[in-house]
Amino acid sequence: MAEKTLPQIFKYVDQNVDSYKKLLKEAVAIPSVSCDAKYRDDCVRMVEWTQEKLKEVGARTELRDVGYQTIEGKEIKLPPVLVGVLGNDPKKNTICLYGHLDVQPALKSDGWETEPFELVERDGKLYGRGSTDDKGPVLGWLHAINAYKGIGEELPVNLKFVFECMEESGSEGLDALLIEKLKPEGFFNDVDYVCISDNYWLGTTKPCITYGLRGISYYFLEIECAKMDLHSGVYGGTVHEAMTDLIYLMNELVDKNGKILVTGMYDSVAPLTEAEKRLYTNIDFDTEAYRKSIAATRLAHNGDKEQILMHRWRYPSLSLHGIEGAAFQPGAKTVIPGKVIGKFSVRIVPNQEPEEVEKLVFDFINKKWAARGSPNKMRITAQSGRAWTENPDHPHYQAAARATRLIYHTEPDMSREGGSIPVTITLQEASGRNVLLLPMGAGDDMAHSQNEKINVRNYIEGIKLFAAYFYEVSKLAK
Ligand SMILES: C[C@H](N)C(=O)N[C@@H](Cc1c[nH]cn1)C(=O)O
Ligand SMILES: [Zn+2]
Ligand SMILES: [Zn+2]
């Protein structure tokens, strides 16, 4: 590949900014919310839409059926997984790219300034659900491939694609597809590297390359006191209320400083070594900017940088998310809910296995429930994904660092991520190859939150970064 290929590609990318925004607008307009079955057709539409785009860049694609999920006793078909192959030149390195096409729920009434499923550009930012998590990055890969085509240059690597639409809901069906079908079929035989762009920089100016993720163990804690909601003036004082029991149980899980109270939760957490401790000192992370960006009054751990990073990356945390069946709408609704489902999750860390964490939580809740002596019905279920770490002293990471320096003219931070991408460790195990996370978006993108956005700069420079990453990986020894 000629010396001037990358500068030509960068120029091509700069000339096509409008078309990249237009495509992201189309993608954001499909409300592919995976956790709510009423959007399941939109999830399927999103997968099919992406399949068309993948075909347009020349990939061979197929939609793989991954079966059904059970929601409230009903069997619901899972969206298919989009699998693709582009190029099979044995002289080239092969990268397997993973991304997700589903999004978290969003309503304008949640506090969005504009419609969440309508991409809006304001002050150099593209607002819309999925703009940074993960539709922008997925499209980034396609634009990077297209840019090679656009300047008439052959792609320097072979690519394989796994794009799913259930990541935000535990990636149901995906592990089985990878391990029981794709691996035996030989999909991973020629894969040399795995790359995922589905996380964010630590701050807003400095790029990162990421070598670790926390896992997640998500719980549904259901309490039922009556077969319907009840008038609190008629039944209040006469029944054992489900919500009272639920609030009691949820309040037992974590203290005001965020310490998890579930017995044994910290027992298997990997001990902190002196060498690991030193890693945190050099990370560029402004805790005050982080605090201000979310308008929090005070951060935990006295805002100490090292402690904040450790509690995001290497210690478990427990968050309470919500209560189904509770009166959440404005107005003084006076019912006693007949059934409530409390939702909480534990971000789990290396050395903690999901099964072990689930058992600790179940045992703890069962013990507290027995002590409570409530006559109500209690049920707890969980869905979990594992944590992941990788060796960042690998030529793959060095290649990504070279690509990053070329685009951003600075040394990227080697970061870990507090969020979870359940399939990462499965891809690592199924391929037996080095896995790398190459984030596109900035630390203030507010994924999952109101007014999620991606900066135009991150989107466009991210496309160039991906093109440069292909080039750098192509130079690695076969
Ligand atoms: C980091 C990634 N972009 C992400 O947002 N992952 C989700 C995955 C998840 C698992 N259950 C529900 N969502 C996350 O970390 O919450
Ligand atoms: Zn997400
Ligand atoms: Zn994501």
Automatic annotation (TrEMBL):
Q: Which residues bind substrate?
A: D198, H231, T334, R347, S420, H448
Q: Which GO terms describe its molecular function?
A: metal ion binding; metallodipeptidase activity
Looking at the UniProt record, the site noted as Important for catalytic activity sits at H231
Q: Which cofactor does it need?
A: Mn(2+)
Q: Where does Mn(2+) 2 bind?
A: H100, D133, D198
Active site residues according to the UniProt entry: D102, E167 (proton acceptor)
Protease keyword on record: yes
Question: Could you state one GO biological process linked to this protein?
Answer: proteolysis
InterPro entries xrefs: ArgE/DapE_CS, CNDP/DUG1, Cyt/Met_Dipeptidase, Peptidase_M20, Peptidase_M20_dimer
Cofactor comment: Binds 2 manganese ions per subunit.
Q: Which SUPFAM superfamilies match?
A: Zn-dependent exopeptidases (SSF53187)
Q: Name one Pfam family in it.
A: Peptidase_M20
Specify which residues bind Mn(2+) 1 according to the UniProt entry for this protein: D133, E168, H448
Q: List the keywords (alphabetical).
A: Hydrolase, Manganese, Metal-binding, Metalloprotease, Protease
Q: Has UniProt tagged this entry with the keyword Glycoprotein?
A: no
Matches recorded under Gene3D superfamilies = 3.30.70.360, Zn peptidases
Superkingdom in the source lineage: Eukaryota
Residues of the Peptidase M20 dimerisation domain: 212-368
| Similarity comment | Belongs to the peptidase M20A family.
Q: What is this protein called?
A: Cytosolic non-specific dipeptidase
Organism ancestry: Eukaryota, Metazoa, Ecdysozoa, Arthropoda, Hexapoda
